[in-house]
Amino acid sequence: MNSNSKKEMIPPVVNPDTTFVGLDISKGRLDSFVPGGQPREDANTPEGHAALIQHLRTLHCPRVICEATGGYEKAVVAALLAAGTEVCVAQAGRVRYFALAEGLLAKNDRIDARLLARFGEKIQPRCELPADPHATRLREMLEYRRVLSDQIVAAENRLELASGYLREGLQLQIATFKSSIMQVETDIATHLSTHPDLDGKAKRLRELCGVGPVLAATLIAYLPELGRLDGKVISSLIGVAPHPKDSGQRRGRRSVAAGRGCVRHVLYMAAVSATRFNPILAAFYRRLRDEKGKPHKVAIVAVMRKMIVVLNRMIAEPQFSLAS
Q: What is the separation of C-alpha 295 from the centre of its chain, rounded to a whole number of angstroms?
């Protein structure tokens, strides 16, 4: 495995008789398709989830393939995992490119369900792991904190040109949001302290200078693979591994792409802090900038990659100690 490899480890199909079920998810409906069978429709409600699960139990070794649809897939995926059904959540872009490779231009819910079944059979994407309920609760807190942060940024942007009554209202709104963020951060700390497994992992991560409470909680909530995969694969999962763009004699500029943006954004701010206060990472950053002439953003991404590789090893190897 190297940093240019796929960003997921593809598990082999344990049972050659696995039935790949394509599931197209929309706000109010679930369209499913089993090769050799008839299209099926269920409501995207708890009752519809139960009916779909009951139908899947009649199949031999079902594995459901669906797309990430901006959140509408969360409830049904959780229900399927709770019922013991294998689920793969694929990126919509990958599925679309697969359709184009097939020469398929038509698109509707039933066609997409058929397409997803073929995509799962040919590509065999990584299966989802059942979520730790404590980590799920932590993720919900972090999502609410991000919503509040976005609201503060929006209000502060408007504050620049506001005056009079509008300015007073925006200032009050910003103060309220900041107070809410403080409360959320207190709740996050309490949640971690009441669950020893999460708290131990958070304390271990914070041993690296530059890792604060927000990054530690974000890695626990959004990166359950940390410590389980190779560091280079973890880097690609987050989106800080450079990918080549070479062709013949041409050597294009390498760049990072895709990955889990919610983790990458927090890791970026931690890397900026580390270049100032972590002596080893600060020296690494200065060497890239001064000796090798790397642009600021390239050097920061390199620091991000080094941080996540070290953090991955810290979780994987409890006896691993940081250089002083």
A: 27
On average, the pLDDT of the chain sits at: 85
Q: What is the mean pLDDT of residues 179-202?
A: 91
The sign one gets for the Cα dihedral 25, 30, 31, 34 is positive
* Claim: this prediction has a pTM higher than 0.85: no
Q: What CA–CA distances, in Å, run from 219 to 54, 231, 269?
A: 35, 14, 14
What digits encode the pLDDT tens for the residues 104-121? 888 888 888 999 999 988
Letter string b/e over residues 11-38, b meaning 16 or more CB atoms within 10 A of that residue's CB = eeeeeeebbbbbbbbeeeebbbbbeeee
- Distance spanning both ends of the chain, measured CA to CA: 29
Spatial CA neighbour of 278 closest among 312, 242, 241, 304: 304
Q: Is the dihedral of CA 190, 195, 196, 197 positive or negative?
A: negative
- Pairing of the two strands 246-247 and 250-251: antiparallel
Kindly report the three-state secondary structure assignment for every residue of the chain: CCCCCCCCCCCCCCCCCCEEEEEEECCCEEEEECCCCCCEEEECCHHHHHHHHHHHCCCCCEEEEEECCCCCCHHHHHHHHHCCCEEEEECHHHHHHHHHHHCCCCCCHHHHHHHHHHHHHHHCCCCCCCCCHHHHHHHHHHHHHHHHHHHHHHHHHHHCCCCHHHHHHHHHHHHHHHHHHHHHHHHHHHHHHCCHHHHHHHHHHCCCCCCCHHHHHHHHHHCCCCCCCCHHHHHHHHCCCCECCEECCEECCCECCCCCHHHHHHHHHHHHHHHHHCHHHHHHHHHHHHHCCCCHHHHHHHHHHHHHHHHHHHHHCCCCCCCC
Distance CA 131, CA 225 (A): 11
pLDDT in tens, 140-182: 999 999 999 999 999 999 988 888 899 999 999 999 999 999 9
